[in-house]
Write a structure and sequence with these properties.
Layout: E1 7-10, E2 14-22, E3 25-30, E4 35-40, H1 44-47, E5 50-51, H2 55-67, H3 76-88, H4 92-108, H5 113-134, H6 138-149
Helix pairs in contact: 2-4, 2-6, 4-5, 5-6
């Protein structure tokens, strides 16, 4: 169970804050896009709501991505479905995998508009957790992410 004021990860959106708990619902504010969402308390786990990771967990996970080879097939449709499933998991590792996969793919062949949007979404999800946990700004978070994943 989460508490009022607690930062959480909401799949497909990134970091949110439990604004309040009322009548069996979490009222979550997602700063990116200024969105408010009502989630039944009983569905939180099924939906994939989770607490933020610790600094050490984020660093280990993302540094490990640098040496990891991203998979992904040639079939665009199948690749898209797999990437959406990864983002729906709400797990940082899965969102980072989407970033890694699409950046590698973009290095070989230009991404489609849809895959570019998916990359931007995954990038924002990963950054939102880094920004919140490390309490840094977006530029600093992007530099950390690029360093850890050996990008640019």
């Amino acid at each position: 169970m989460f508490e009022q004021g607690q930062k959480i990860i909401y799949p497909m959106h990134g970091v949110g804050v439990i604004e309040r708990i009322e009548e069996g619902y979490y009222i979550i504010h997602i700063p990116h896009g200024d969105v408010r969402i009502r989630i039944p308390l009983t569905n939180a786990e099924r939906i994939g709501l989770r607490p933020l990771l610790q600094r050490e967990e984020i660093e280990a996970l993302l540094q490990g991505m640098a040496t990891r080879r991203a998979g992904g097939g040639e079939n665009w449709n199948q690749r898209y479905k797999e990437n959406i499933q990864r983002l729906r998991s709400g797990k940082l590792e899965q969102a980072a995998e989407v970033v890694k996969l699409l950046l590698e793919r973009n290095g070989k062949k230009k991404l489609s508009v849809v895959e570019n949007r998916l990359l931007a979404m995954a990038w924002q999800i990963v950054l939102s957790e880094i920004i919140s946990v490390y309490e840094i700004n977006g530029r600093e978070a992007e530099e950390l992410l690029a360093k850890w994943m050996k990008i640019g």
